Amino acid sequence: MTTTDNAAKARISASELADVDRAHIIHPYLSATTTERVVMAKGQGSTLWDVDGREYLDATGGLWLAQVGHGRAELAEAAATQMRQLEYFTSFWEFSNNRAIELADRLAGLAPDNLNHVYFTSGGSEGIEAALKMARHHHYRRGDTDRTWILARHRAYHGVAYGGGTATGFPLYHDGFGPMLPDVAHLTPPWPYRTDLFGDEDCTDVCIRELENTIAEIGADNIAAMIGEPIMGVAGMVVPPDDYWPRVQEVLHRHGILLILDEVVTAYGRVGQWFAADHFGVRPDIIVTAKGITSGYLPLGAVLVDDHIAETLGQQGFPMGYTYNGHPTSCAVAQANLDIIDREHLLSRATEIGTYLTEKIATELKGIPVVGEVRGVGMMLGIELVSDTATRTPLPNPGAVADAVRREHGVIVRDSAQGLVLSPALTLGHNEADRIAAALRRVLERTDASGT
Ligand code: PLP
User: Which GO molecular-function terms appear in the entry (predicted)?
Assistant: First the structure.
């Protein structure tokens, strides 16, 4: 089927859509062994329906972003109203637009203290690239031209462009794509459950010692910034000890190294606060956000920048721009999305329903041999799966577990490197939380150490 006739395209029947997809769409990360396609057609709250009318419970919030849930007519109206006024104009040079200005003003009010400046993007990866370039350029403008190194962590995920993709700490994202960006060093992630990384020592102590040693080896005057997700998402919703970020910040500050927090997943309520920086009590120099800013209704990202960096960059302008910087329609939808988060008190709800869901899952999964740990902050939950709870050896192929939960129970969860991750809408109902926990129990209680 290679027709380009729109009328003909609209006539593709439900039963043919999967075939046409297989013929024409390149999917990110599609397993080479699957021919299956799940073709979604409708969403409401945390419920999705595919083109055959099968119902699913979305426990992933789209891709970790549907803060207000699917199917909000209010957001469709916001987009339509703005498109009738001004769908798009550039924000390059001296041009701006009312919606981008209003949103930047609101974000500056929500963000931690000195992060009063906003650089808009279309998504997370673009935001990470902007943040890394800002960090290097800030030092360059100040005459610190050797400060090029970026510190990141193993098991981090910072998107798929070459800068963030290099900072990402999984071989999968590097293999076959090299050479990657030079001058990037990876550190041990703060992952208390992984005792193989820390032995009997305190997790934060080990990480801080390694950070200090790495800075000494590379030379503080050669390092631009450290980047990290406050809670590591793709790794498995890895929650660091409370003292990790404050102590990292102290070391970086002492050496003049900038701290970039990648809050692409955590920002805008998912952890029960607007930003995870507030949860951990840190004041980064740059925060990268995307996803939840529009709940995914339109692509948008916002890099929040501290006064001192904006001042350096402002002296001669920041020589980097994306066509969709400050897209007025995306910004209008973001405003309407933040209005819903405010009006429906979704920050406190994330904590309330997130605690309920975590406890419910922990109770249902108690005593199941392949379940190592259930953890979470707000509506970011990770389940560590192991083939042996004593050695904490990761269970092979957690993807098979996620597939079974979807196919057998219609509940969509996602596999991580070493288990399962959940990030439902902040509006999830208690009975929906119960259904998620029950579906996980039914599949995991019959899963053996081989992962089948
Ligand atoms: N950073 C983090 C922590 C993410 O989880 C993601 C995407 O999941 C990204 C960056 C990249 O964002 P995007 O996929 O919008 O480019």
Answer: pyridoxal phosphate binding; transaminase activity
